[in-house]
Specification:
10 strands; 2 domains; disordered N terminus; alpha+beta; Outer membrane lipoprotein wza fold like; wza like fold
């Protein structure tokens, strides 16, 4: 009988380890995608192709997904065309709140979040150049893999990126340290030896 009590104690101890330990680990480590999204959203500037989810508490007719058009504007119910390009998500949210407060709603509670970021583009010495959907935390190597990998003529040590609508390319190392941002135009150069 003593051995039965000992076995029950051991089983109970193992059950506690499997039930309590995973719950503690889940609380101490937030999911990486949430953290990446929050850090990107805080300084991220909206641009053409971004899809936003806009909600006004208690006003279901307004709520929905809206896309920033090629001119950098967004067409919204009641308030019409609103300039979004160049603003952070927080700045855009304040602008929409202000416009809705001007004769439409009293103290509207507006929330704005990026539903889908604008795509990035990759050209040059990759097997499938073109437009690809942006994913949080993506490195230049992930982008090259999406584009079918390098061609035989590719310079695999570097890549050139145009960011934020700039006309000038900047050289970056083609490794995990170089992160891709929404709207980037990546060019993989040809090697000359």
């Amino acid at each position: 009988m003593l051995w039965r009590a000992a076995i029950r104690t051991i089983i109970l101890a193992w059950a506690l380890v499997f039930v309590v330990m995973p719950a503690g680990l889940a609380q101490s480590n937030p999911p990486p995608s949430t953290t990446a999204s929050a850090s990107l959203d805080s300084g991220y500037r909206l641009g053409p192709g971004d899809k936003l989810r806009i909600n006004i508490y208690g006003q279901t007719d307004f709520n929905g997904d809206y896309v920033v058009d090629g001119a950098g504007n967004m067409q919204l119910p009641l308030i019409g065309q609103v300039k979004a390009a160049g603003l952070t998500v927080s700045e855009f949210q304040k602008l929409v709140t202000s416009k809705l407060s001007d004769g439409f709603y009293v103290n509207p509670s507006v929330s704005v979040e990026v539903e889908n970021y604008r795509p990035f583009y990759i050209i040059g010495e990759v097997n499938k150049p073109g437009e690809y959907p942006y994913v949080n935390g993506m490195s230049i190597l992930n982008a090259i893999a999406l584009a079918g990998g390098y061609t035989e003529r590719a310079d695999e040590s570097e890549a050139y990126i145009r960011r934020n609508g700039q006309n000038k390319e900047t050289e970056y190392p083609a490794d995990e340290t170089t992160k891709v941002e929404p709207g980037d135009i990546i060019r993989v150069p040809q090697r000359y030896f």
